[in-house]
Automatic annotation (TrEMBL):
Name listed for the protein in its UniProt record: G protein-coupled receptor 12
Record localization: Cell membrane
Domain of life: Eukaryota
Organism: Pongo abelii (Sumatran orangutan)
Protein topology in the membrane: Multi-pass membrane protein
PANTHER family reported for this sequence: G-PROTEIN COUPLED RECEPTOR
Record Gene3D superfamilies: Rhodopsin 7-helix transmembrane proteins
InterPro entries: GPCR_Rhodpsn, GPCR_Rhodpsn_7TM, GPR12, GPR_3/6/12_orphan
One Pfam assignment: 7tm_1
Family: Belongs to the G-protein coupled receptor 1 family.
Coiled-coil region(s): none
Amino acid sequence: MNEDLKVNLSGLPRDYLDAAAAENISAAVSSRVPAVEPEPELVVNPWDIVLCTSGTLISCENAIVVLIIFHNPSLRAPMFLLIGSLALADLLAGIGLIINFVFAYLLQSEATKLVTIGLIVASFSASVCSLLAITVDRYLSLYYALTYHSERTVTFTYVMLVMLWGTSICLGLLPIMGWNCLRDESTCSVVRPLTKNNAAILSVSFLFMFALMLQLYIQICKIVMRHAHQIALQHHFLATSHYVTTRKGVSTLAIILGTFAACWMPFTLYSLIADYTYPSIYTYATLLPATYNSIINPVIYAFRNQEIQKALCLICCGCIPSSLAQRARSPSDV
């Protein structure tokens, strides 16, 4: 009688209480068993795939130029040393883009970020500085044509190489030495972990070098036009021939400088006005054309050169085509 009263005091039927007790027991057991969380899926940014593909193409293309110059003892003139420096810088830039992709998705850490961005900054800085050095060398070869092939020119070339690589390495070491935004995200630029001030210095330096290259190429155009006119007078060429040759030389210089500006200017200007709060798609869209400059450089500076073409033909087919062997250098080949 007392047991029935106790049960009826709850105001609930016995079968309901049994079901509730079972639910409580199952809940207690499930709380003690650790839940198995599903592994997060690795989502790859398509822009990173494009940059990695670009880096692979850059590496393969410039590795050919580096091997040709390294294994050919006849390619030791100042011009080829500078072309080799450009190819080596672009090769390292391509390797940096590949490493950046691997580290971003497989080995994520602050150390790998700093090493990767340091390598990319140093290699691209060396690439741009090598382009400036090639421009200076072309100007000197035309302005001081009689004394260009002297020992002093070789010494000056080595000094330029030491300076440009030393400066580029120092720029690449800045993020590693502490000038980064890993501790303060508010100071980040469009390229993390570079600080806004670091990106500004790189952008302003680029604009200064571009202005210097523009001035040098204007002087080169004047010298080429004067040389072409003198050659036309000496050989009694027609005015039309002189005009065609001069136009070809000026067009070549315009393509070289225009390609360089089109590749690098968007990212340079964007780095000056933007910061980490801007959408990353803008960074990718302006950075990708800058990598294309390292793809185009071997075509413009290496594979158009007759000596490198001969060396490449010797490596590929063991012979030099007669059309290439008999080709004479013209004033438009600048």
